[in-house]
Specification:
By secondary structure, the chain is mainly α. The chain is built from four helices and no strands. The protein starts with 16 loop residues before the first helix and ends in a 5-residue tail after the last helix.
Length: 83
């Protein structure tokens, strides 16, 4: 399986794997968005593969990912993982 090129906001790329996982878990995403977040942010799975796994078009995942990343970033800031 290919590895996705994940573009993260400043500072998010410096989080440890466990910190990113905690931020995702603490974010109120819902089961499906949390699974998408973990697949994309932790496992670096490409959006097309995530879309196939969840039964969506890649464009639907592409629209959801920025919102998910924004929520996870906000939570990481609240958890004092980011400045």
């Amino acid at each position: 399986m290919a590895c996705a090129r994940v573009k993260l906001p400043d500072g998010m790329d410096l989080l440890l794997h466990r910190e990113m996982e905690e931020a995702i878990d603490q974010t109120n995403l819902g089961r499906e968005d949390a699974a998408i977040a973990k697949a994309y942010l932790l496992d670096h799975i490409p959006q097309i593969d995530i879309a196939v796994e969840h039964g969506y078009d890649r464009s639907a995942i592409s629209r959801r990912v920025p919102k998910i990343i924004a929520k996870v970033t906000q939570t990481a800031k609240k958890l004092n993982m980011l400045d």
